[in-house]
Structure prediction request, 221 residues.
Amino acid sequence: MGKVAILIVLAACGLSVNAHAQNLLAYWNMDASTVSSKFTANQGDQAGTVTMTAAPSGFLNGMSSVTGIALNALPPIGDPNNALHTTTFISSGEECQVVMSGLNLSNMTDLTLSFAVKSNAFFSWGEHMHIDYDIGEGWVDWVESGSTEAGQWEVDSFTLPEAVNGQSSVSLRIRMTDFIAVAQYVDFDNIQITAVPEPGTWALLGGLGIAGLVIIRRRRA
Prediction:
């Protein structure tokens, strides 16, 4: 088999793998000691353009920094390893929300949001987690899941619907709601947003590469 043929086969294999590879768009490790500094993305292709905000709801609420967890974390693990801590004394309806804005999904699919979360309350009834998205037409309450196990860290991961694929401006929102909660807290750590480049993007890059190899081969001949 000629060298060009071998290179073409290797390129095709690489395209097959890359067509399903997740690109890290933004990652927040929440290790900063101050709350405001936690909202700056630490890694990712779009870390410099994506923004984050967070806000607890209810009566006598606040945010602070607490000890975090290694679940869903990317290296290097922070020392100290911190998390975002949201609290509310009494809430009915929304407990807290975390919003990530400015994602560019042009030529990308399979937007996935994953994070570590822990919540607990002196009393809580009807707690639910909501994952919402906005593509410039207003917030869509996309999925609702049950409450987290009281006081235990867990990792949740959600792949957003096709409606966000290819959109140039996407916002995501994590919301915790309840019918009523007393002395409630919700902690967030290691928030990741990933997406997969569309096959056409890899095909174009691969086609250009293969064409270049053939041209080089012909010139040498």
Remarks:
- DSSP finds three helices and nine strands in the chain.
- Residues 22-197 form a domain with the Jelly Rolls fold (CATH 2.60.120.200).
